Amino acid sequence: MSIRLSNIAKQFGRFPALSPLDLTIHQGEMMGLLGPSGSGKTTLLRIIAGLETADDGTIHFGEREVTRLHVRERRVGFVFQNYALFRHMTVADNVAFGLQVMPKKQRPAAAVIAQRVAQLLETVQLGHLAQRYPEQLSGGQKQRIALARALATQPEVLLLDEPFGALDAKVRKELRRWLRTLHDELKFTSVFVTHDQDEALELSDRVVVMSHGRIEQIDTPAQLYANPNSRFVFDFLGNANVFDARWHAQGWHNGAAFLLPPEQPALQQDGQLYVRSHELMLTHKASSQACLPFTVVSITPIGAEVRVELSPRGWLSETLWEARLAHQQLQELAITRGSQVFATPTTGYFFGAQPPADTPHASAPVKIHWPFLPKGILAFDI
Predict the structure, then answer these.
(1) Backbone φ and ψ of 44, nearest 5°
(2) Which residue of 52, 130, 162, 222 has the fewest C-beta atoms within 10 A of its own C-beta?
(3) SS3 content of the chain, % helix, strand, coil (to 5)
(4) What are the backbone angles phi and psi of residue 37, rounded to the nearest 5°?
(5) pLDDT (tens digit, 9 = 90+) per residue, 212-238?
């Protein structure tokens, strides 16, 4: 079942929760709504469900308009962050609840309900817990039961509001993988809300990044990460270092630091260069294209990577910089806390003070790759 939202707007008092927006969710797609608190993502999810009413706009499920339909008539399954299980009911009774309260003409027979509950519990791999009570379950098990209950009425659309927010990191990761597998097997259309970028990028077919009630960008996880179209998207996805660039003498300068960009008119101005932590190369020498001097502040192993925090030396930055290296790279560099190093971006994203007129988004960055000069003129001593 596809979902089409047209010109949806919502205001709470004087607060504009959603500016007029359009969104299409394809049949069988898993769509992630990603954004910080107050961005409007939960309000949008509740409007799709029918738990909130939009001030303006229309909603279609397939060819059926559901804008003014009650939540019961929309055939939507909803999974809450806090599970919302009935503590006095067994697991089986919780899953069956939505079927048992259906109008008599639509309610399946008791035997059919029992069979469907048993099938769903096997689907979520919890058939052996049918007679237990919610207080006897772990957080991950409760979330699976909440999902089974949402699927029991065979909804056309499944909506999830921060479904893993109350779980610890290990359980979240396991359930994300499990939910994605289940979605691919059952092929239902689903929309979920999250403020966790890893969760959105891992689960979604496409991600909607929201801010202040507006949609900033809609894209596949790979494209969203590779081509963020605004400073907000870049900042929210995180792990980015920012170089405040002042254009002078054919390059960007900041105190003792400089970067030489390609010869493009859009780059010949003041602005900010965003560099992700894994796209930063450390050496003991500067290069002809980059002189970013740092002092190593800390070195922290994190799984297969090492996080190196860097303090700018002779130039200004609002925060420490971060580089992520493989363990072998760190060993080859032979650096320790207090070492003096130079950094060169391998990829950067430049936001100019005057964005090019032909960019598809008003604040879209220019993507740059280093090195771009002929080989053989890369390193020199400082």
Answers:
(1) -65, -40
(2) 222
(3) 30, 35, 35
(4) -60, 135
(5) 999 999 999 999 988 888 888 988 887
Structure tokens of 95?
């899953």
Question: What angle (nearest 5°) sits at the alpha carbon of residue 261, between those of residues 325 and 316?
Answer: 65
Q: What is the rounded average pLDDT of the residues 32-47?
A: 93
Torsion angle of C-alpha atoms 283, 285, 289, 292, degrees rounded to 10 = 70
Q: How far is CA 242 from CA 199, 249, 312, 350, in A?
A: 25, 21, 12, 10
CA 256 to chain CA centroid, nearest Å: 36
Residue tagged 């107050």 (tokens): 38
For 271, 313, 332, 371, the CA distances from 260, given in Å and listed in that order, are 14, 18, 26, 10
129-158 confidence digits (pLDDT tens): 999 999 999 888 888 898 888 888 888 899
Give residues with Cβ within 8 angstroms of 164, minimum separation 6. 143, 171, 172, 175, 176, 194, 196, 199
Say which residues have a Cβ less than 8 Å from residue 178's Cβ, sequence separation at least 6.
Answer: 144
Are the CB atoms for 223 and 205 separated by under 8 Å? no
Mean of the per-residue pLDDT values of the chain: 88
Please write down the HEC assignment for all residues of 269-300. Answer: CCEEEEEEHHHEEEECCEECCEEEEEEEEEEE
191 close to 205: Cβ distance less than 8 angstroms: no
pLDDT band at 25 (very low <50, low <70, confident <90, very high): very high
Amino acid occupying residue 195? H
Whether the full predicted model's pTM is greater than 0.85, yes or no, is no
Q: What is the DSSP letter of 264?
A: -
